[in-house]
Amino acid sequence: MKRLSFPAVTTALLALVCLSAHTRLTDPPPLYKNASAPIESRVRDLLKRMTTQEKVGQLSTLLGWEMYDKRGDSVQVSEKFKKAVKEQQIGMLWATLRADPWTQKTLTTGLNPAQAAQATNAIQKYVVENTRLGIPMMLAEECPHGHMAIGTTVFPTALGQGSTWNPALIQQMASTIAREARLQGAHVGYGPVLDLAREPRWSRVEETYGEDPVLNGQMGIAMVKGFQGTSIKSGSNIISTLKHFTAYGVPEGGHNGGSVSPGPRELAQVYLPPFRDAVKAGALSIMTAYNSIDGIPCSANPYLLKTVLRDQWHFNGYVVSDLSSISGLMSNHRVAATPADAAALAINAGLDSDLSGYGFGKALQEAVDKGAVSAAVLDTAVSRVLRMKFAMGLFESPYVSSEKARSEVRTASHVALARQVARESITLLKNKDNALPLAKTLKSIAVIGPNADNVYNQLGDYTAPQAEGAVVTVLQGIRNKLGANAQINYVKGCSIRDTATNSIAEAVAAAKQAEVAVVVLGGSSARDFKTEYQNTGAAKVSATSVSDMESGEGFDRVSLDLMGKQLELLQAVMKTGTPVVLVLIKGRPLNLNWPAANVPAIVDAWYPGQEGGNAIADVLFGDYNPAGRLTISVPKSVGQLPIYYNYKNPARHDYVEMDAKPLFPFGYGLSYSTFDYSGLQVQATPTASDVQVNVSFTLKNQSNRDGDEVVQLYVSDRSSSVVSPAKQLKKFARVHLKAGEQKTLTFQLRAEDLMLLNPAMQWVAEKGTFSLLVGASSDDIRLKQDFQLAKDIPVRP
Asked: How far is CA 192 from CA 30, 239, 252, 521, 616, in A?
């Protein structure tokens, strides 16, 4: 055999190397990187290439604010992030751009919008260039009433949003929130919260739209459509994550995360419908709740996550845990003995993604290794997450423009929208002898109270630090309205909770010298840097705490009384004889018995957001005619709880001490205009498998002032095979009428609006008599007419 010389061998080897290199250069990219390939094909191709460790890593969502370092104006990935990528091969982050006392990110240490874009770009660049498969990150952010990041627009909290009764406006708001978040590099927005608020002692009432499944469902649809738009690939939209699945808002004793025990019929008819509506609208993500239902934790409930969500509703998105709720299966609920057992329980039940990084991670890897979780189950969960990344176009466009983030977040139009949402949310509870609107010719006004000039008390929970001048308080709003034409004297009077100090005497003196006193009381969800937090982000409540915070996650109440010396302050000001207007800024219904009996005018603004002061001034001085309506009943006593309007028959009877009615009912709210309802016509037309009930009537503005009326249509089933609600909201509309104008309004009901779960657990609109109730609130019915269904109509919701 002829031997090759060394130079010849070298030449041959170099030729092989060159040929190999040329082959690699000309090889087509893997299918998962082919943007024109079908998403499902890309998912399957990528899954085949991934190791078990890489798959487990894709399901971990770590705390994001620890993943960047800011040095001056420069932002880069942190060593902690590099370590997490290397050791855990993570696929998602949460709250990367969040700033608040819990994260210890301030206006100085946190990120403005341009820096936020730099941070998310750096994160994406690192994983794309420094991991084997180059899978981009998916970044989730808190977005319930604005993106919870520095420099974004802050809208009213959800209870205020619901009080607008205007889903179209809320969809516009959600679209704005989504754009601001996406411009900074976020992909998922946590929201809307679709829990029913039937326990006002619960700390998170402010995050809900109220107590009613139909209203909550309509607001949920609006948020989903606003967040996701027509395509999450648009560069302006984000994935909507529905919270909290499910029945989270009615914990025993008001304890956040406490157990609940609705029957299967109540669960299906009351708590699930808002989620069902939002899933039908296209929601792509859903978050499990901390609570258990009838002994089964929601984060390990296959009936909820498989039977209902996948089989019945055909949900095609991914399910994420709430923070630490997987590990909570072991530490809180005690249904798992080890972290691996908890991970197996969750993922086998249908939970795809872990918000925390330690619910799955090593624990899930151990569960897979010992056979407690099959490869098929793991692949299913991973594919649901990857599908979203492909659908959003992250493999092709992982980066955002820092300059766009700088110029297009919190624009003048976004701020104007925040003002409009706040104006439409404001609810006029009392206006004796037309005490409002106030005259702009007033020369002296006393502005009094702990919430009159407190930026953070006005914003609610899940709000980032605010730059000086970004938030308009009530005091500033009144100053903006009257300018130098009036003497405006401000006295705080007292704090929300602290009883150690007060300036009630000074407040009384200011009121005596004024033509009118605007007293601003209520509550606060404002976190401060002295507050301690649980690992879930909920605040630790201390009996010795003197912060204002009496609402917001973790701050459950035993009573609903105004805290501190607020009532004492109000009573002292009232004794001066100066006309008083009470403005309420708060996150839950409070005890208003004394104010309702004694104060001429009461305005409820909930947490109205950054433009709240201007919006409230618009209402106080008549530049905006209020039309907000309550979405949660206001009790006279905690002893009446629960007091939601659509309770099940029989009718409630009075107590020894008081009647059973709320102080202010669901749907209630006043206006500077008056409206007349007339001419109700109802026509029920059956079809082969449905019914169409057309309801029409005339609405007239009888006043000399343009205004909005919120028209509400309720249904009462006169006789049913199972116990039904006394009445149930089915349709509503916020209608603008000029002075003297009238319109004919039409609503349409179908069998789905009339259905119930019969004794055989079948959805059916039953034959019999139904009463249609049209009015201005659940307790102010103006028109009523019955109609008949001649036969049962099976329904597939």
From this structure: 37, 11, 23, 27, 25
Tell me, what amino acid is at 80? K
Kindly indicate the confidence band of residue 26, based on its pLDDT and cuts at 50, 70 and 90. low
Tokens of 206: 């402010």
Write down the H helix ranges in 62-150. Answer: 79-88, 113-130
Spatial distance between the Cα atoms of 494 and 521, rounded to a whole number of angstroms: 10
- Residue-range domains of the chain with CATH: 22-407 (3.20.20.300), 426-632 (3.40.50.1700), 675-794 (2.60.40.10)
Residue 139: per-residue pLDDT: 98
First to last CA, the chain: 81
Name the pLDDT band for 3 (thresholds 50, 70, 90). very low
SS3 747: strand
What residues pair up with 698 in beta bridges, in sequence order? 678, 744
Q: Which two tokens stand for residue 598?
A: 């004694």
d(CA 651, CA 634): 18
Task: Tell me how far CA of residue 177 lies from CA of 149, 157, 751, in angstroms.
Answer: 11, 13, 35
Report the DSSP pairing between strands 580-585 and 763-765. Answer: unpaired
Which residue's entry shows tokens 């998403």?
Answer: 39
Q: Which member of 322, 461, 556, 618 is catalytic?
A: 322
Q: Annotated catalytic, 322?
A: yes
Sheet with 285-288, side-by-side order of all strands = 318-320, 285-288, 239-245, 188-193, 138-142, 92-94, 60-63, 354-355
Q: Which of 657, 697, 661 is nearest to 676 (CA)?
A: 697
Return the number of other C-beta atoms located less than 10 Å from residue 214's C-beta: 19
Phi, psi at 476, each rounded to 5°: -70, -35
Helix axes 339-349, 361-369, angle to 10 degrees: 80
Please check the confidence at residue 618 and state whether its pLDDT lies above 90: yes
pLDDT of residue 547: 82
Whether 427 contacts 628, CB under 8 Å: yes
Dmax over CA atoms of the chain, in Å, equals: 119
How remote is the C-alpha of 2 from its chain's centroid? 80
Q: What is the mean pLDDT of the chain?
A: 94
Q: Render pLDDT for 409-455 as a digit per residue (tens, 0 to 9).
A: 999 999 999 999 999 999 999 999 999 999 999 999 999 999 999 99
Burial class from Cβ neighbours inside 10 Å (0-12, 13-18, 19+) for residue 738 reads: exposed
- Please return the burial class of 390, using the count of CB atoms within 10 Å of its CB with bins 0-12, 13-18 and 19+: buried
pLDDT band at residue 472, thresholds of 50, 70 and 90? very high
**pLDDT average, residue stretch 527-547:** 59
DSSP secondary-structure letter at 574? H
CB 120 within 8 A of CB 405: no
